[in-house]
Amino acid sequence: MEISHKLLDEIEKVLAEVNNRNKSPELEELKHLALSLEDRLQRALAQIQHTSLKAEPILTQIDEKEANQLRDRLQSIGERWKEYENIIREKRLRLDERSADESELNNEVELLQFWCDETETECAIPISPLNLTMLKDLAGKLEERLNSYEAKRTSLQAIERLKDHLISAQLTDPTSKHRMRQAVSEIGKRVSSIRSLLHDRKSELNLAVNVAKNFQDDLNKLQKFCDRTEKAIQL
């Protein structure tokens, strides 16, 4: 029974150390602590069960008062173990939720970064001012980007809400909070700048398309004039 108490005391000590820290550990350290606590919990359960089995024959050999005292001690140990199990389960649940939320945040930020990368690349594509087909094609792509911009803004707002939720969580450590604030701030600025970039480049392309069309029309007119002139000369 002393071994069971010792194992439970160790669990209590680890829980107290975590709760009394000035700042929450980083996610990986929390995962390691959770695994360590779960392992200690299972070892304590095995020891309690072993002790209970050993106590069964003893209970029939001692008087009722001593038997009741022994049962009370065993029950107290079991209740203490159950209390720690509930605490550790709750911490594991919160840890898993934080891990899932952080993964979602990182994934959403990466998706927005990828969209920004693609958009900036498309805006930087050099095209000959006489290539009407490519000018129209790129103008169409940028129009699609502009049409999807509000959806990206909505995604950014969801990211900001998730960031605020994680920052307010007690389990989130200061380093992770700073990293999240910085990442969300940077992608927010980038998404905002993309809109101006898209509008400016789209305006340039629209103008280039009109110039190319006019040039093509003039060229066609000139070609027709030349064709008519050649026919007239041949008469």
Could you describe the 3D structure shown?
This protein is mainly α and 235 residues long. It has a single domain, classed as Methane Monooxygenase Hydroxylase, Chain G, domain 1. 89% of the residues lie in helices and 0% in strands. It is built from five helices and no strands. The protein has helices at 2-20, 27-59, 64-123, 132-168, 174-234. Helix 1 (2-20) packs parallel to helix 3 (64-123), helix 2 packs antiparallel against helix 3 and helix 3 (64-123) runs parallel beside helix 5 (174-234). The longest helix has 61 residues, at 174-234. The radius of gyration is 35 Å and the shape is rod-shaped. The relative contact order is 0.09. This is Nesprin-1. It comes from Onchocerca ochengi (Filarial nematode worm). Keywords: Coiled coil. Residues 132-159 form a coiled coil.
Q: What is the strand and helix layout of this fold?
A:
Blueprint: H1 2-20, H2 27-59, H3 64-123, H4 132-168, H5 174-234
Structure described in brief:
89% of the residues lie in helices and 0% in strands.
Query: Shape, please?
Result: rod-shaped
Looking at the structure, the CATH topology is: Methane Monooxygenase Hydroxylase, Chain G, domain 1
Query: Residue share in helices?
Result: over 70%
Count of domains: 1
Helix count?
5
Q: What would the average pLDDT be, to the nearest integer? A: 84
**How large is the share of residues in beta strands?**
under 5%
Coiled coil: 132-159
Keywords: Coiled coil
Protein name: Nesprin-1
